[in-house]
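Supplementary Methods S3. Input chains for the assembly prediction are listed below.
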Amino acid sequence: MARIEKVLIGQSGGPTAVINASLAGAVRSARALGAPVLGMAHGIEGLLHDEVVDLDVAVPDDRSLDVLRSTPGSYLGSCRYKLPSPEEAPAVYDALLGTLDRLGVGVVAYIGGNDSMDTIDKLGRYGEAAGSAIRFMGVPKTIDNDLVAQDHTPGYGSAAKFVATCVSELACDASVYPVKSVLVVETMGRDVGWLGAASSLAWTAGSRGPDIVLVPEAPVSLDAFLDKVSNLLAVQDFVMVAVSEGARGLDGQPLYAEEGAREDAFGHAASQAGVGGFLARLVSERLGCKARGVELSTLQRCAAHVVSGRDREEAEALGALAVRVGLEGRSRGMSCLARVSDLPYEVRLGVTDVSAVANEVRQLPGSWIANDGMGVTAEFERYARPLVEGTDTCRWVDGVPWHLRTPFGETVAL
Amino acid sequence: MARIEKVLIGQSGGPTAVINASLAGAVRSARALGAPVLGMAHGIEGLLHDEVVDLDVAVPDDRSLDVLRSTPGSYLGSCRYKLPSPEEAPAVYDALLGTLDRLGVGVVAYIGGNDSMDTIDKLGRYGEAAGSAIRFMGVPKTIDNDLVAQDHTPGYGSAAKFVATCVSELACDASVYPVKSVLVVETMGRDVGWLGAASSLAWTAGSRGPDIVLVPEAPVSLDAFLDKVSNLLAVQDFVMVAVSEGARGLDGQPLYAEEGAREDAFGHAASQAGVGGFLARLVSERLGCKARGVELSTLQRCAAHVVSGRDREEAEALGALAVRVGLEGRSRGMSCLARVSDLPYEVRLGVTDVSAVANEVRQLPGSWIANDGMGVTAEFERYARPLVEGTDTCRWVDGVPWHLRTPFGETVAL
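Predicted structure tokens for the full assembly:
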């Protein structure tokens, strides 16, 4: 009798609003193919401590999978564990492969960003060299949209939609008084400007977006920034600025560190308040007008009450695909999306080598940034608009979201 | 031929996510009774400068009223103008009444908080003494829920729902790593704890709320707070704290000012970062665990993409009622809600005297605060749960909210 292979799923890195849609898709796919499904509690780090959850018990049916699909956070927990190289620590690899063998795992599906793909790549190579038949597959996720070798990453569309939605609402809220004022909205994005740029999607015939967008890829001088704000204030009462948390000055340092500001108390307070608060205070002091900073916070990656319907569907499909091709024999691959056309929007699902994705970072293309470095072009909108389309929400009970509780404390005996 | 009286509507103070639902209700009510409808641009302050909008042009039909209903911010703009007393400045009153007469206004409906009700009261009394037939009516709005003489205020339910929703999502997001950690979520509420308390509504069978709730009505010592956090961390990995921006120490000062912290750089940075950031840093330094602060920001009052359906309906009904009773002859009244029963939820719409509301502040009842001053009781939930029930959203176009643009620049020639 052929042994039935199990599927083991893990989640790693920062959560997204749809990371559990990928998990739900992976579970459904495994079930459709008759494979029992286990979950790592807290990713590879948990696996090292034998923390494994029986997902056929924790998420037994379509009803619980539907709730899981719209639950934010990483249902299986997460880790930031960096796998050492096989040369440094072969014992770690042997331990992991031994655990997988004991569990009867045939396919490992790891939902994560570029660090996670590096983990998958290393484990896969080590296993192959050791003669293991276990396949290691990756499922992409990151709100930062910084993975190479694909059109976009699940998690980005929903975060982008949340950013653009909040920006359009804050614009209504902040412009009600008949005074000159500036609102600075800070988005996530330490190294890349994809989420900062998404703020520009708030511009439609029926809503208002930012006048200025600052991203890490386009360093600016504070003087040029203040000049632009000042020129705008000369012709309009309300000016809105969107800034990525990692926006940089001409010296490549964080914007609030430019011009020696880092050294004094002002700079110190700024680093506490973030770049949005810093720019608001700078505008207020230098231009003498009312200014306020708003940080959109980690809600950008967990506001599952309002996600891109398209993003959630794609996240689920990519989770399902990785498990299916893994069960079919593929290893060291990552499911991903390729754009076929912008309008009408069409993508093709495929599988790429994890080694092409591991440890690489994709920045916002320079040609999509405005000439003055303080905005994005129509090319960006053509790319990003389809990603925020469709609106999906969560399950509501008693007026608040209903989430699936994490299954910790119900780990499998090994 | 009897002169057709016009209705003039204004909005004042900080916006709410449903303040324009009250405006839409007021417009519909006037139209149903055959009255032309005008709007003050930027409240009473705009009226002093003859800034009046023809709402029958700007919002001509049900289609535009439906968009208005889910547009955040104050569609008519707002002001923070404090009307002087009639003794100080009778000329201001004479000017306002003269403008209203010239416009042919029979009813003024002013949507605002307790300051606005004071404005309505003063104008109404002055007009009556001067023999004017113009009626002045108030429509309540405030996310703070601090108006007396009524069960609750439109705007609160939606802000409370947003707070509880975000708290439940942030709890999922912030608890994914297997480490001891504390999340401090800061809500609005400088003088009252209604919004801070609303965070507790995140506790349901399917979602997780805060372990500690700090409100301005219950001053605490930082030592007692740290003790409680420390005790919780001894038995669980993740601790969540919700704090009203105006939470106070035992000396009645802002919490971050307690124990002399205000005097040093730490205290200074704290006042920049807000009480949430301050408490997170304090926990991190004193208890040596990971801690993060999240400020929910002005999104609490403008996130029209997710509101309490009940709140939006009540806001609309109260706008409509004020105009109707004004056209019937009532003056110096404010439409309001009285609770008939909690379960099933039932309210009665009525009209109270604005003088009962003006300048008063309603705090969270002491009996609804836990004995240790760091939580709320089941009585609070019984009161507040019905206010967040029902979920309504906005109109979505191109993946982002579609709002009605403010009508400024189209003011009426006087």
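Chain A has two domains: 6-143+304-359+392-401, 156-302. The first strand of chain A starts at residue 6 and ends at 11.
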